[in-house]
């Protein structure tokens, strides 16, 4: 019985192997085709990643260039505005000096006017006094 069982097992395993061989070949072919498709997909994905990396690098370069230009323009604008501000400060200083000079001159002229008014009053008084004196004569 052991011999029969063993010969049956041998036939069965040999028989299964023969029956499964075409299925195994088909499965291996299918797996190889899937593997080839996955390799192709992987290659395509690598190319896409490389393209995207190149794009990102170019965008970074462009962005850096734009930032450099903007920084240069802002720096130049700042320099020009500083020059203009200094000119305006100088003009304000000069105008303030001129204003002070004119104010002093105005004050001096007012004092002269006041002095002349006083002198005029004094002269009027003298004229009045002389008129009074003349009338008495």
What does this structure look like?
This protein has 137 residues and is mainly alpha-helical. The chain has one domain (1-108). It has one helix and no strands. The longest helix has 135 residues, at 2-136. The protein is rod-shaped, with a radius of gyration of 57 Å.
Integer-rounded radius of gyration:
57 Å
- The averaged pLDDT comes out at 89
Helix count, DSSP H or I runs of 4 or more residues: 1
Number of beta strands: 0
Oligomer: single chain
- The separation of the N and C termini measures 187 Å
Largest beta-sheet characterization = none
Helix % is: over 70%
Jot down its keywords:
1 helix; 0% strand; 137 residues; mainly alpha
Summarize the structure.
This protein has one helix spanning 2-136. With 137 residues, it is an all-alpha fold.
